[in-house]
Design a protein that fits this description.
The chain is an alpha/beta fold and 251 residues long. It is built from 8 helices and 11 strands.
């Protein structure tokens, strides 16, 4: 289980701002927040920032919204396109909602108003951004692992269902979500013709009521397994009896 951001080493920050006074100010705030924790590197242009980002990995980026003739949002997008995973925090001179919204939409993790920043806010913002990124990375790893597990499970499932001679349906409610190739021998319909259709359409009209009442996977009589005979009507209008076994599964 994730217990939050626990990095006790030095946090390397790249500050991108064309005003050296801002660098002096933020470096002082970082020292005041934690004298040994933060190391701030200064880039006074977009070009220098991109160069420095290629030389080493930074834990966080602070980017000025007004970056010379460019907008800091442009740099945010370029850093993300280069595969930068560290959180990027946009520095603004005023708390305008449209700028704040644009920062988040561009991919920035957060934003800081220069007119309100102090040591405590600086420290809290950096810590929050790093913790949020750590949680996000952990979730992404879990999703990727789950996807790999599901892909492996699906491959095994298809290897079984697509080589058996038994007809197999996966049904949600009464809607057919999957059928294997063997189903065509039984029903006369190809899998593509059946997916998305209501299973009741295959059942002989005289046998539809019990399915509508009890469903496919529920026992018609309490205590008995969900296995029964069912008459269907094939695509060629021939009638055929099925020995049907039903159960629940995650799909």
């Amino acid at each position: 289980m994730h217990n939050g951001f626990t990095n006790t080493g030095t946090i390397h920050i790249l500050l991108v701002d064309d005003d050296e006074d801002e660098y002096v100010l933020l470096k002082g705030l970082s020292s005041e927040a934690d004298q040994t924790r933060y190391q701030v590197t200064w880039a006074n242009s977009k070009t220098k920032a991109l160069t420095l980002s290629e030389k080493r990995a930074y834990d966080a980026y602070l980017v000025d919204y007004r970056l010379g003739a460019n907008y800091g949002l442009d740099l945010v997008q370029e850093l993300l396109q280069k595969g930068i995973k560290a959180p990027i925090i946009l520095l603004t001179n005023q708390g305008r909602q449209e700028i704040d919204t644009a920062a988040i939409q561009a991919g920035a993790a957060d934003y800081l108003n220069k007119t309100e920043i102090n040591a405590s806010l600086f420290d809290r913002t950096i810590r929050y951004a790093l913790e949020h990124k750590a949680i996000q990375s952990e979730l992404e790893q879990k999703v990727q692992q789950r996807t790999r597990d599901l892909q492996l499970s699906e491959a095994r499932f298809r290897a079984l269902t697509e080589t058996t001679s038994a007809s197999i349906f996966i049904i949600t409610g009464l809607t057919i979500r999957y059928t294997n190739p063997a189903t065509k021998e039984v029903t006369g319909y190809s899998p593509d013709e059946l997916i998305g259709r209501n299973f009741l359409e295959l059942i002989h009209p005289e046998y539809r009521r019990p399915i509508e009442t009890h469903g496919l996977g529920n026992s018609w009589v309490p205590g008995l397994p969900s296995r029964y005979e069912l008459k269907i009507v094939r695509k060629d209008l021939q009638e055929r009896w099925l020995d049907l076994t039903a159960g629940e599964l995650e799909y």
